[in-house]
Every structure is written in structure tokens, then in C-alpha cells.
Amino acid sequence: MSTRLNWLRAGVLGANDGIISTAGLVVGVAGSTTSRPVILAAGVAGLLAGSLSMAAGEYVSVSSQRDSERAALDQERRELVQRPEAELDELTELLAARGLSPDVAREAAEQLTERDALRAHARVELGINPDELANPWHAAFASLAAFTVGALLPLLAILLPGPSQRVPITVAAVVAALVLCGVTSARLGGAPAGRAVLRNVGGGALAMAVTYSVGTWIGTT
Predict the structure, then answer these.
(1) Range of the structural domain that residue 211 is part of
(2) Residue 168 and residue 191: Cα distance in Å, rounded?
(3) Please, what is the end-to-end C-alpha distance for the chain in angstroms?
(4) 11 and 56 fall within a common domain
């Protein structure tokens, strides 16, 4: 459940990023021109660049994390072979630090070591589940998909209405989507929804205001 919640939270944040970055881009371009093909080209380019950038960044980040986890497991495996008694004492101390009495901690450490020493140290000492190392490809595709879904909303909102209604409709759609993302992320994290919504909406509104102002200034000069 914890792993699924982490993936879901990452998906919500990726979608939120897609909404804000693409909304800022297309609103800025709409402030400069009323040409639908130009807005479409800019929006699609922003969607592709953003989603691929998110995927590449997530792949690199998770790959580094997995490499670190593998290195820690390899080191622990060597230590278990070279100094098993010291590792048993270390596991006992770690279990005792979690509230077990010294005798119970020793007995638990011995039983865990007999069953699977590496798994015991990985979980208790390193906080790693050897069977569930992070998959960089899963993370990359999840980020790409989440960003793309989020980016499609402002892109469609800016393209479908007429020139005079594009920006107001896009702003309304983006604010509604950011409210939903803020509430969802807050509930997943067990935090108050109001603060998360204000941060989301405030950041998105600021991004659109700045880019629209710049686009309007460039379009008139």
C-alpha cells in the first residue's frame, strides 16, 4: 500500500507539473498571438519537451537510487561473509534500539539470520526491501504519462474556444484542475487540503499571469 501511495502521489505531482508548465506556455503564446496553429505548435512542443524531460529526469534519479541500493546490499553481503558475528551483534543492537529487550533482540536476530541474513540486515539496517528495488523504467513511463495527461487539459482548453474566450476558459480550467490536484495530494499525504490548494492555485496563477504579460508585451512590440 505504501508503494502504491508513493506512485500515486508522484503521478499527481507529475500531472500538476504538466498542467502548470503547459498552461503558462500556451497562455503566454496566446497573449502574443491569436493564431491557433502557432498556439498548437507551441503547446505540443511544450508537452513533448516537458514529458520527455520528466521521464529522463525520473529515469536518471531512480537509476541512481537503485545503484546505491545495490551497492549497499553488495557491501552488506560481503560483511556477512567476512564478519558474521559482528553483523549478528549489530542486528541485535538495532532490534534492541527498536524496543526489544536484549535477550529477545538476540533471539530474534539469530532467528532472522538463520532464515535470511541479508534480507534481515537489508530491512532492519538499511531500510531496503531486496525484492522491491525501484524500477527506473516504470518511474520514467509513469512520469511521462502523468505529465502528458496534465498538459493535455490546458492545451485543449486554449485551442477549442474562440480567440476572445481562450484565456478566461483556460484559466478557469487550470484553476479547477489545480484545486483537484491539491486536494488529492493533500489527502494522500494526510495534510490539510486548504494549504495545498492555495499553493497549487497560487503557483499556477502566478505562472500564467507572468507569461501572459510577457506574451502580450512581446506581441505588441
Answers:
(1) 2-60+136-220
(2) 31
(3) 55
(4) yes
